Every structure is written in structure tokens, then in C-alpha cells.
Amino acid sequence: MSAKTTETLNKQTIETVKATVPVLEEYGEAITTHFYQRLFEDHPELKNIFNQTHQHVGDQPKALANTVYAAAQYIDQLEVILPRVKQIAEKHRSLNVQPEHYPIVGEYLLKAIKEVLGEAATDDIINAWGNAYGVIADAFIGVEKEMYQEAEQQKGGWTGYRLFKVAGKVQESDEITSFYLEPEDGGELPVYKPGQYLTIKAEIPGESYDHLRQYSLSEAPGKPYYRISVKKELGTAGQPDGIVSSWLHDKVKTGDSIPVSAPAGDFYLNAHTDRPVVLISGGVGLTPMMSMWRYAREKQPEREVRFIHAARNGSVHAFKEEIKGAKPGTAHLIYEKPSEEDMKQGLYVREGYISLEWLKTVAPEHAEFYFCGPEGFMRAVNHMLQEWRIPEERIHYEFFGPQGVL
């Protein structure tokens, strides 16, 4: 996406779209919530693509509202949001979103704008947004076409879904279980980047539609299997247990087959630098970090790596044995509320939470920083790194689920 992208939008269209920025700031989430409601009423088959849990709790409408707002704000310089476009396109490719889906989405987005804003949504505004959406959709389709080709043409690659057999199932903690996946066809596996994820299609008996979920690969690339490590999500505040994580933990057995799309994601370790790397995780956010950590130890043994993980206590902390075997001074565990058993083992180095003062004692300032975990944890880590004045280009993070804002 470049300046050429906006050449098809005339000055009047750009000015009209930019004029809607204050309106989108106020009504954006109402528009996207209404959009999804109408879309699924008329096209229930699209529930097979969109995560319905994120719909119910409001995460997906909020994420789309942020994206639409950014598109309006930068409609005259779309290259500014190119990283966001690529990030969403990675997710779309993993979910097998196709070009024919875009006109449907565009139609219902314009309907939602008109129905929520009422008379304020003049013909000029609707026409301008129609033109702008067409340009943005074409950009997504072009980027995703290249991604599909790359996924299919790489050694061992494929598009769509490929059946994988569960070759092993290992409980890593009270909450997290690892699944070792091998291709049912016995073919080769493409090498992924450490930190990327798989999309699995859960075809659950009794459910009216499929459920697609992304899970980080928790093993270094180059193995004859893929490994995902899944936390069983327990419901809180009236919300039910996670449909797919419960199915994986409770129903899926060794020998079962699961449809999987090729590895995807733009959050991965930069292996083309010898700069020190600091991996910071909270809870199940350690899964992509395990892939990065293992890769760095196997392929870049001279690289300085610091692994920092925060958990409630040892019972919910996965991969403890591996971390025990780390080189002294390279792995640091923080337990919020350590148990008596944790105290006996003495595996953790700090009780409570990560602080900037403590972080400065274990992490080199000139490092690349990667972090992942619950949103509140990520917000706190991001704030620390900003306070430390770590340059933005050396700060990398990933949300589990729709992209939020830190």
C-alpha cells in the first residue's frame, strides 16, 4: 500500500471521509456492533469464520471500530497503517478469508453507518465511504493474495485446511496442555518463524457452526511436528468456559485428527540480528516466547537472551522443568502468590509483580524486547519500556485475540 493507493480517491472523497473522524470516535463501536449483528442475521455461514466469543464480549466490534477509525484518520496517507493492514491480513489468511467476502462486508458496513447515524449519514458520506472501502478492500485482497501464494509455494506448504493427527497430548500445568500435531498425509512441514501461530478448525459435535482459533506454536521450528500449548479458559463473571479450549482439553484424544491452516503471524523473533533479546511473558503468553527461546538457544547460542515469566504460582506455570535447566542468570520467574511448595522449590526469583526498577537489573537496555500476556500485563510492561525510553522499533508485542490498544 503506497501513495498510489489513494490516487483513485479524489480530494472530495478524502475530505468527506476525514470529516467523519469525530463521528467515528463517538459512534464507531455502535456502528461495528450493529454491523456484525446484521451481517450474521443475513449471512450466518460467516459465523464459521468469525470468533463468536469475541463477538459476545465485544472485543471484535471494538477492534473493528479502531481499524475503521484509523482508516478514516489516515485515508490520505494509508501507508501509515500498512503495518496494521499486514497484521490483519496475516489473520485473514490464517482464517481463509476470500476476496468474495469483501463485498459482503462492505455492503453491511455501509448499511450500519447509515442505520446508526440516521440522517447524519448523507449520500455524500455513504458514497465517499463506499469508494474508500473499495480501495482499502483491494489493498487487503492484494496483500492476502501474496500471502496465500507464499503459504502454498513454500516447501511443504498448503492453503485451506490440512488434517493433522494428535500424536501426543502432554499436561504442562494445572491449566495448560500441549498438543503435538503431525500431518495425517505424512508430508513435509513448512518451517515457520518462532512466535507465529496455527489456526485450528474445531468441528465440535452439537455446535451449529465451526470454531476457528489461533494458538501460538510453542516449539522451535524445524521439528517433524507442530506443538501448540493451550490454556483451558474457565468462564468468569457469567461467561461460559472457553468452547474450543474445553473441547481440546476434555474431548480431543491422541490419534484424533484436526484441520489446521498453515502457520501465520507477524509477531516473531528477529533472527537477522545479534542484538540481545528480552522475552517477557505473563500466563499463557509464554507460548510464543518458548518458541523464540528455544530457537535462540538452538540456532543463535552466542546471542544474549533473557527469559522473564510471570505467573500466579507454580501450579499454573508451564514448562517449569525446562526453565530449571536454563543457564544461570538467563531465566527469571515472578510468582504473584507463591505456594508453600513454590517456596520450598525456590524456583522463582521475585514475589509479586515485575517492576521497572527490577527489570533494569536483569535486562540489557540495548536489547530487543518481546512481550505477550493478558492485556493488563501487557499494558504495564509497555508503560515500563516507554518510561525506560526504549525506542518503539525495539518493542514487539502480540495480543491473543482481536488487536487492542496499549
TrEMBL record:
Gene3D superfamilies: Globins, Nucleotide-binding domain of ferredoxin-NADP reductase (FNR) module, Translation factors
Cofactor details (free text): Binds 1 FAD per subunit. Binds 1 heme b (iron(II)-protoporphyrin IX) group per subunit.
Keywords: Detoxification, Dioxygenase, FAD, Flavoprotein, Heme, Iron, Metal-binding, NAD, NADP, Oxidoreductase, Oxygen transport, Transport
Binding site for NADP(+): 283-288
Stored Pfam families: FAD_binding_6, Globin, NAD_binding_1
Binding site for heme b: 92
Region (Reductase) residue spans: 156-406
Keyword Cytoplasm attached: no
Domain of life: Bacteria
Gene Ontology BP terms: cellular response to nitrosative stress; nitric oxide catabolic process; response to toxic substance
Molecular function GO terms recorded: FAD binding; heme binding; metal ion binding; nitric oxide dioxygenase NAD(P)H activity; oxygen binding; oxygen carrier activity
Site (Influences the redox potential of the prosthetic heme and FAD groups): 91, 398
Alphabetical list of HAMAP family matching this protein: Hmp
Function: Is involved in NO detoxification in an aerobic process, termed nitric oxide dioxygenase (NOD) reaction that utilizes O(2) and NAD(P)H to convert NO to nitrate, which protects the bacterium from various noxious nitrogen compounds. Therefore, plays a central role in the inducible response to nitrosative stress.
Database matches in NCBIfam families: PRK13289.1
Similarity comment: family membership: Belongs to the globin family. Two-domain flavohemoproteins subfamily.
Name this protein carries in UniProt: Flavohemoprotein
